[in-house]
Every structure is written in C-alpha cells, then in structure tokens.
Write a structure and sequence with these properties.
By secondary structure, the protein is an alpha/beta fold. It contains 19 helices and 8 strands. The radius of gyration is 21 Å and the shape is globular.
Length: 422
C-alpha cells in the first residue's frame, strides 16, 4: 500500500505506527483466508479489497469529498444509511476489530470496556485508521453504556450526531425512533447542504434494499447440503459491506451468488461431506476479527450462519418502497430498523426466535453463542439464549473472548470438544 503514503500524510496519520499494522495484516489474512482450498473465484474481489484496505476505498472517499460530498462514519446497524445516501452523502463503517487498536483506547477508557469500543476509540486517537480520519461526521447511537461514554470522547474533535435508540419495542417507541430518524435527516441536510426529497429517499431505499437482497442471496447459498463457501469468507464480505459503495457491493455479491448457486448445482463443496454445521450468534465481529471463525473451521466444523450485526441482522427485512411522503418514508425506515433484535432491547425474545429459526433454515447441528469480553448486554442475555436452545433440543456452547490470541488454544479445545460431542 506504499502508493498511498502521501494520502496518509495528508490525513495526519501516524505513519510509523500504521506501518506496524500494515506489516501484520497480510500475514494474518494469508493464514486465515488464502490457506483455504477450492475457494470461489468471486472471492478475489474481497481479497483485493483487503490487500488495499487502507488505500482504495479511502482514496475514493477523499476524491468524493473534493467534489463536495460528505462522509458519515457509523458504528451500528441501526443508523439508516438511506438517509445519508438520499442527501448525496456517503456512509462508511468505523468499528474496530483488531487488538492493535485496543491499547490506544485504554488510554482514555477503562480496561473493563468491550474491545470493540476500545479498538474504535484507539483507531481514532492513535491516528492509524484512515476511515476515522476521513469522516466529516460520526454517527453514534445509544445501544450500550460503553458506547455512550465513547461518543463523548470521539465527539471532542469530530462532529458527532447521536441517535437515541429506544430500549423497548412498544408503539410509543416506534414513534420515538421515527422522530429520531427525522432529526437525523435534518442533521444530514445541514452538513451536506442538500435537501432530502421523497424522490431521493425512495431511490436510496431502493439502493440499500438491493444491497440487502444481494447479501441475502449469498447467505441463502449456505443453506445447501454441500456448502459452496466457507463461513469466514462470508464473514469477510459482510464486514467489507459496511465500508463499500452499496451499488458495487450489491453487484459483487450478486456475481458471487451466481457462482455459489452454480456450485450447488454442480455439488461443489468447500467442506468434506458430513462436516458439522454451526450457527454463530452474539456480539458483532468487526474487521479484521476472524479468530473465532478460523478456529471453528479448522476444528472440523463449518459456520453456516451468523446471527449478529455482522450477519443476518445487517440485511434481513426490507424497507417499504411504496411510501409517497417523507413522513411515511421515515416511518417505514423506523419499522424496518426496529425489527433488528439487538440485546439492548428488553424484552428481546425475538432474538431467540431468530436463532431457532436460523438453526432450522441453515440446518445447523449446533450453536456457538459468543460474547466479547465486558459486553454486559450479550453476556447477560446469553443465559436466556442457552436456556431456550437447550429446551428446544439444540446443542449450544457459550463462549467469551476478546481480540487477543491468548485464549486461542483454550477456544480450540472447547470448540473441538463441542464438535466431537455433536
């Protein structure tokens, strides 16, 4: 990525520290992904993106800024991309999934904070992630207490808009979230200088719906008896979907889905016949957090579905495209996004219903419910998830981990025993 040094300098990045990150990533990526046999040819696109992860897309964003467009950095699947796109803005994900960034976050956050939050803050404060340097505005949300305090830190030198997500799903909560989306639209209009119209929002809704449909096609291919793609490859493309141009993302996902569907017809599988199928649920796995999937898929099992924000929650449910007023469109957006079953809600029985449904749809032999260390929400909800799955006769293994490799062998032992039990 040496061609981007001048760009990184202009962004005010710590080049020496950033070089350390760039030296580690290719080896990690090669060990996890390029070591796989019989991968779909379509994965070459995502391999290329990762090879230039801090170059290609950041350069596109900077060029768009030169044309007057604004970039919005988001941290959560509840932030409606459609609103930004309707004002000719651009959305990029910002969550950090690397231990490399955690020490930077611990300079200002308690050590007993979720690694995803610490990594996100560290990526900004240590100036080693171009996406955090490029964004004109950060968009946070109130899904957990750790994030709410992190927004106060990140908002000190970058404009921050916070969406107050309701914690229940009553009619009045839907009204509140509709109002939050309308308020976000005003903030977006002010920053971009562009008016959101019924026509522009309708087109934005259509674009993101098409992206969701394309991702759903890829996931649907994993329901086949012969798995045409590994779980970690699907995790990778889902992670990158948060950063990529939505139209291009849909095109590449549909192209890959075409290949996967043909592989299914030709009975081509990337796993031996009889490999145990696992569903992974829980906290999101932000790029480049591939540890759990890699351990599972080198321990005799295959990941066939992710019930998490870097999984089904990201693309399930489409926004109604028939509304003819902004008010109606904001309501339609609110209805779609409130269907997402995050552990921040109480009660959250819908998430358990989702997991059981996915087990049936993806023909999973068992579930691994994973919790990032210090994530109180998912850790607490894990009790109800495991209880419900056991009552339904579904084998389940609850795990807690972080971004380090210190627990890798322990995880491998526990996962291996779980697979053997299956």
């Amino acid at each position: 990525m040496s061609n981007y040094v001048e760009m990184w300098k202009e962004l005010g990045m710590d080049l020496e520290n950033h070089d350390n990150l760039c030296q580690v990533l290719p080896t990690a990526f090669g060990d996890v992904f390029l070591s796989q046999q019989n991968r779909p040819q379509g994965m070459a696109f995502w391999d290329m993106v990762v090879a230039e992860i801090h170059g290609i897309r950041p350069a596109e964003l900077i060029e768009a800024q030169k044309q007057g467009r604004k970039v919005f950095g988001t941290f959560c699947v509840y932030v409606p991309d459609e609103v930004v796109i309707a004002a000719n803005g651009i959305v990029t994900g910002l969550c950090g999934g690397s231990q490399f960034w955690v020490p930077g976050g611990e300079k200002v956050l308690p050590k007993a904070t979720c690694p995803l939050i610490k990594a996100s803050v560290g990526a900004r404060l240590d100036r080693t992630c171009p996406f955090f340097r490029i964004a004109d505005m950060y968009v946070g949300e109130t899904t957990c207490d750790g994030k709410k305090k992190a927004w106060e830190i990140l908002g000190q030198d970058v404009p921050m808009h916070i969406m107050d997500l309701p914690q229940m799903k009553r009619p009045q909560d839907l009204d509140k979230w509709t109002a939050e989306i309308a308020a976000f639209a005003k903030a977006v209009e002010e920053l971009t200088g562009n008016k959101i119209t019924v026509e522009s929002l309708n087109e934005a809704i259509r674009v993101i719906n098409e992206k969701r449909k394309a991702l759903a096609r890829v996931y649907a291919a994993r329901k086949a008896a012969n798995l045409p793609i590994s779980g970690k490859d699907v995790l990778l493309l889902t992670q990158i979907a948060f950063f990529d141009d939505p139209v291009r993302c849909a095109q590449m996902c549909n192209k890959l889905a075409d290949e996967l569907e043909q592989r299914i017809k030709d009975e081509v599988s990337v796993f031996p016949k009889g490999t145990k199928r696992l569903l992974v649920s829980g906290t999101p796995l932000a790029i480049p957090n591939w540890k759990l999937h890699h351990i599972i898929e080198t321990s005799g099992a295959a990941v066939v579905c992710e019930e998490m924000c870097t999984g089904t929650r990201y693309f399930e449910n489409l926004v109604d495209e028939t509304q003819t007023t902004l008010e109606g469109q904001f309501r339609a957006l609110a209805e779609r996004y409130m269907k997402t079953n995050c552990a921040c809600f109480t009660p959250n029985t819908g998430r358990i219903d989702d997991i059981i449904r996915y087990v049936k749809e993806y023909k999973a032999d068992g579930v691994i419910d994973v919790n990032l260390k210090f994530c109180c929400l998912y850790d607490t909800e894990g009790y109800q998830v495991e209880k419900a799955l056991k009552e339904a006769g579904i084998p389940v293994l609850g795990l807690e981990t972080d971004y380090t490799d210190a627990d890798a062998e322990q995880l491998r032992t526990r996962i291996g025993a779980f697979v053997e039990m299956l």
